[in-house]
Amino acid sequence: MQSADSLKRRIEMAERNASVRESPSGPPTIKVGDDSNSSEILVFTSLCNVYKVQKKELMDKFQALQKIDTEPEERAIYLTGEKRYKGFLIVAFENGKIGKISMESYKTEYTRKKLMNGFNSESRLVFIELIEQDIDLVAMSSIKKVVLFNTSLINAVESRTTKGVQVMKPKDGSVMIKVNRLENTKLTDPEYYRKSESLNAIGFYLKPGDEI
After folding, report:
1. To bridge 64 with a disulfide, which of 37, 53, 130, 187 should be the other Cys (CB 3.0-4.6 Å)?
2. What is the CA radius of gyration of the chain?
3. Is 210 a domain residue?
4. 80 close to 131: Cβ distance less than 8 angstroms
5. DSSP symbol at 67
């Protein structure tokens, strides 16, 4: 078993390369969120489970990865504090749909170590992040079409297994391959990609020099 320090170094190295790392064969490589103002660490996994670890039991939030009993072939994909169960979990899928799940739906009356069905499993996950207020996100498809939108356009739901709403419309068999916060992109004219009046857009071709 790896030590917490070695896990932390490996995760931080991956995080320097990308805020979310997509894999053509599975969910994103582990992503780390903020754990301030939190009493629990939540570990979301590739099998759509959510493991809860009491923060008071940890010297370092990365130790949460050593305190969960995962299933065979299961791996952690997102580690974050629960933020007192305020805000929303944003989940984006390869089929172009994005869900906005109220964090209240992950709150339990009694201390539990594992929740099943933490998010929908029908389409490959390409983005997951807990947000405390609405933010601008940029989505890109496999044919390099891009859409900029604000998460306020997506209604929050209580269902953890929501399929989400169609944000990117497929074209010629395209799929959504990447979603990123606007501030983590390199766009010379971000508003060029915004379609604020509605979602379900094919998007606009990525301009030369722009990066998502």
Report:
1. 53
2. 17
3. no
4. no
5. S
Task: Classify 114 as helix, strand or coil.
Answer: strand
Q: Rounded distance, CA 130 to CA 29, Å?
A: 16
With respect to residue 211, please indicate whether it lies within any of the assigned structural domains: no
As beta bridge partners, residue 26 has: 23
Q: Are strands 136-141 and 145-150 parallel, antiparallel or unpaired?
A: antiparallel
Q: Quick one: tokens of 57? A: 């039991």
Q: How far is CA 76 from the centre of its chain?
A: 12
- pLDDT of res. 197: 73
Mean pLDDT of 146-174: 96
Whether residue 185 lies inside any domain: the answer is: yes
Give the chain's mean pLDDT.
Answer: 89
Q: What is the model's pTM?
A: 0.86
Which tokens in the block code for residue 94? 């390869």
